[in-house]
Write a structure and sequence with these properties.
This protein is α/β, with parallel strands linked by helices. The protein is 53% helix and 14% strand. It contains 10 helices and 6 strands; from the N terminus they run βαβαβαβαβαβααααα.
Amino acid sequence: MKKTVALVEDDARLRKQLVQILEDIDDIECVIVCASAEEALEKIPSKNPDVVLMDIKLPRMSGIQCVTELKRILPEVQVIMVTVYEDSDRIFKALCAGAVGYLQKDTPLEEVLESLKVILKGGSVMSPAIARKVIEYFSPKRTYNEPLTAKEHQVINAMVDGLSYKMIGDRLGISLETVRQHIKNIYRKLQVNSKAEVIARSIRGEL
């Protein structure tokens, strides 16, 4: 008995390529093709496919929202996200919504096919870049126990006073490049990404 697949993709070119590949597989049948989440929610439930290939960025309702609704209607349906995005937020929202796979759109179409077969056998799939994001998310964050130097404390005090990089250099008698290096080291040691975070921690007395 053939396994059934539904496709939700607004890119006409990619949609056509995927349909052509699916049509060439003897034991898989593409039962419906949709260009939007709204169309998918209207038409896919009656087809009750085994797997849905779902784009994330759709015209109105997002693919992630669509997955949430589809899983509510069809709890057993398996969804693979196919997208250009690989940021952690979208990955985990998709997985939490119920997706069992997450592939980038530049994944070779033959690999998309292999991924379908894995999903149909009860597995889960992710392209290498996505898998790396997942690993990084669950890996222990590196901590820095290296203390701030006296000069770095002076730089922070100058930042709290609202001085520009040039003014900090003038106050401390150091070059602009040295100021930048000190601030880079401060960010690294404090594990922050902005001047505002450094100032906030200093004001709270955490330094």
